[in-house]
Write a structure and sequence with these properties.
The chain is of the alpha/beta class. It has 2 domains: 209 residues, Collagenase (Catalytic Domain), CATH 3.40.390; 161 residues, Sandwich (Immunoglobulin-like), CATH 2.60.40. The strands form 6 sheets. Strands 1-9-11-8-3-7 form a 6-stranded mixed beta sheet, with helices on one face. Strands 15, 17, 18, 20, 21 and 22 form a 6-stranded mixed beta sheet that branches. Strands 14-16-19-23 form a 4-stranded antiparallel beta sheet, with no helix packed on it. Helix 1 crosses helix 3. The two termini are 24 Å apart. The relative contact order is 0.13.
Length: 414
């Protein structure tokens, strides 16, 4: 990774050492501004406080910005020279998901909510991640931000993916640098920190180190301090992360209970997973058996060549703190022949009474097979994974345990 953050960063070859300049000569990664409202640091709180919101703006459908005082709610910025429409993030959904995962990891020590959903008319920082540096009048840059020696209220910062290339980690590190500029942090002469221009030392995270200010050489800090500790400065501004003790909320969005497929069909299992922290992994189960594990958004699996049978699908997701969540089961039918032979009553399943069981009792002879299936315990699924109770709307065939086919991980494109 080559990182030359001067008025941002231009993509370049990896340097031979951390002190070597790459790409363009220095142009400055922040712009001093007087037209901004400052706010006091929140500071660490024993009882916790609402998180500071960092909205990472993908610019879906284009983003209109106007010149003016810093205002993320009304989309005005001291950086843009005139009205501008920025195009949306160019590298697709998978790349965007990686950008978000990396950004959340970088900001994870602090009480900062990193989101790509617009928070609306509430106080928030906005990290615009779209377009090219020429769109806002700073050619060759990879990012730019407004700057004072304090915390700007409702700032808009810029990271330019079309200048950086499709490098999710680099993009996330530039987001981190520009966001912190709006909180009064300068460049550091410390390769491991996102506030640096230096490169060649691996992924960057905020360091709990008293570092010299500087770009490619040490220099006096501009804000009247001898050194800068990015970790402690951000901690003092917003406080530590509030531990997440709740498991993810999981919704299987496709297929839905009652869906029928022909034998040999291909279909996709999709899920929406919501959590206050980063989701580490999601495991798909069929009738209590593990099928596959997905580790990145969007969450989904491709089922191929389904064999006839009835399947109960469930998903267990685990967040970065080890909290588990379990989806509501979804039951589907893959018809291997006349579906009436599966979904009908006793007569349809066994018209002459010689088969030793019915669809309703799963052939166990006492009429209780489908109704006594155990509930899956998150993190330790067992049995067929269905939960029977009086008045359930689950189809009768959805109470039969079967085996599902091999899955192939689905990977979504843009």
């Amino acid at each position: 990774m080559g990182l030359s953050l001067v008025a941002g960063t231009a993509r370049a070859e990896a340097p031979s050492g951390p002190d070597e300049r790459t790409g363009e000569p220095p142009r400055g990664t922040y712009v001093w501004t007087e037209d901004a409202t400052l706010v006091d640091p929140v500071g660490p709180q024993a009882g916790g406080a609402p998180p500071h919101i960092l909205f990472i703006q993908r610019c879906s459908g284009g983003l209109d910005l106007s010149p003016g005082a810093e205002d993320s709610i009304n989309n005005t910025s001291t950086i843009v020279p005139g009205p501008v429409t920025l195009p949306e993030y160019p590298f697709g959904n998978d790349s965007w998901a990686q950008v978000m995962a990396n950004a959340r990891e970088i900001f994870s020590p602090f009480n900062i909510e990193v989101t790509d959903e617009d928070p609306g008319p509430v106080a928030h920082d906005e990290a615009v991640v779209c377009g090219d540096a020429v769109d806002v009048g700073v050619p060759g840059a990879g990012g730019v931000a407004p700057f004072t020696c304090g915390i700007i209220n409702n700032p808009i910062t810029f990271t330019f993916p079309e200048s950086l290339g499709n490098d999710p980690r680099l993009i996330a590190e530039v987001i981190a640098q520009e966001a912190a500029h709006a909180w009064g942090l300068e460049h550091e002469y410390l390769c491991e920190d996102p506030m640096t221009y230096l490169s060649g030392c691996g992924p960057k995270t905020y360091q709990d180190v008293d570092a010299e200010c500087g770009e490619f050489n040490p220099r006096p800090c501009d804000c009247g301090v001898e050194s800068q500790n990015s970790y402690q400065r951000i901690l003092a501004a917003f406080g530590p992360a509030i531990p997440d003790e709740e498991g993810p909320i999981i919704t299987i969005t496709a297929p839905i209970t009652g869906t029928m497929y022909d034998e040999g069909a291909d279909f996709t299992v999709l899920a929406q997973i919501v959590d206050d922290s980063l989701v580490d992994r999601a495991t798909l189960y069929s009738n209590g058996e593990v099928l596959d594990i997905d580790t990145t958004e969007p969450w989904g699996w491709q089922i191929t060549g389904a064999a006839g049978g009835v399947y109960t699908l469930e998903i267990v997701a685990v967040d970065e703190y080890g909290n588990e969540g379990l989806s509501t089961p979804v039951s589907i039918l893959v018809a291997g022949g006349d579906p009436l032979g599966v979904t009908g009553g006793d007569e349809a399943a066994d018209p002459d009474g010689t088969q030793g069981g019915t669809v309703a009792d799963s052939g166990d002879g006492d009429g209780s097979g489908g109704a006594t299936a155990g509930e899956i315990v998150p993190g330790n699924p067992s049995g067929c994974g269905c939960t029977a109770s009086g008045g359930s709307s689950t189809p009768a065939w959805a109470l039969l345990p079967w085996l599902l086919v091999v899955v192939r991980r689905r990977r979504s494109a843009a």
